[in-house]
Amino acid sequence: MTEPDQDFQTYMWVVAHPDDAEFSSAGTIHKLASEGKDVIIIQVTSGDRGASDDSLPPETVGATREAEEQEAARRLGAKHVEFLREGDGHVFPTVELREKIIRMIRMFRPDVIVTHDPFRPYALHPDHRAVGITTHDSVYPLARDPLYFPEHRAQGLEPHKTAEIWYFGPETPDIVVDITDHFDAKVNALLAHKSQVGSGENLAERMRERHEDVAKDHPFELGEAFKTVAMRR
Ligand SMILES: [Zn+2]
To answer: 153-183 pLDDT, tens per residue?
Structure first.
C-alpha cells in the first residue's frame, strides 16, 4: 500500500512536541491538506524545555514554540492546532492524559490518528513513548464506548470510532506516502521552527537524503513511512 484510503476525510496527529509532526510527516500533512482533507494537530506539550541553553524561562520557550507551530501548521494547510500544555519531559501514560486525548478524539472525530510509534525498541524519547502509547490506548476501545468518561456526553462530545491508527518512525513500515511534490512545503514548515532549526543550514539536503532512503524501493523519489493498524469495529 502506498496511498491512504480516499474515503478518509479527517486526520488527527497527536504529537509530543512542536516540530515532531513536521519532522516525521509534514509532506503527508501538506499532501492531505492539498487534497482537501482536514488535518488537526494535537500538541501534548509546548516543547517548553526544548532549548540548548537556559537563558530563557520555560514559559517563554513554550510561547515561542507554540507560535512557531501555528506558523508551520499554517504553511502546511492544517486546519487546527490544539495545545494540551503538559510539561515538556514530564509526559506519562496516565488516565488523566487518556481523558484529554479521548476528549480530542470525540471533539475532532478523526478517521485516522497519526502518532509516535511507542513499540519501536530502545532509542525513544520518553515523551514520544508516553504520547504514542497513551494515544494507542485511547483509540480502542475507550474513545468508542460511552461508559468511558461519560461526562463528555454532557458536554456534547459523543463516542467516536477511529478507523485506523498510523505510527510514524516505525520499525516495520507498511505504507510509504509519495511526498516528492510536497518536499519543499515540508522544508518550509520546518523553517518555521526557527528556535529549533536556526537558519536551516543543510536542512533540505539532510531531509532529502532521509526521504530518498525511505522511498528507495518505490517508484517515486521521496517518501514518508508509517505503520498502519486498522482498528477493530
Ligand atoms: Zn519530540
So the answer is: 999 999 999 999 999 999 899 999 999 999 9
What's the gap in Å between 86 CA and the centre of ligand 1? 13
The CA 155 to ligand 1 mean position distance, Å, reads 31
Its pTM stands at: 0.96
Q: Report CA(45)–ligand 1 centroid distance (Å).
A: 9
Report residue 92 as a C-alpha cell. Answer: 506519562
CA distances from 162 to 8, 55, 58, 233 (A): 10, 42, 34, 9
For residue 30, the SS3 value is: helix
CATH architecture of the domain 10-230 equals 3-Layer(aba) Sandwich (3.40)
Task: Delimit the domains of the chain by residue range.
Answer: 10-230
Q: How far is the CA of 8 from the centre of ligand 1 (A)?
A: 26
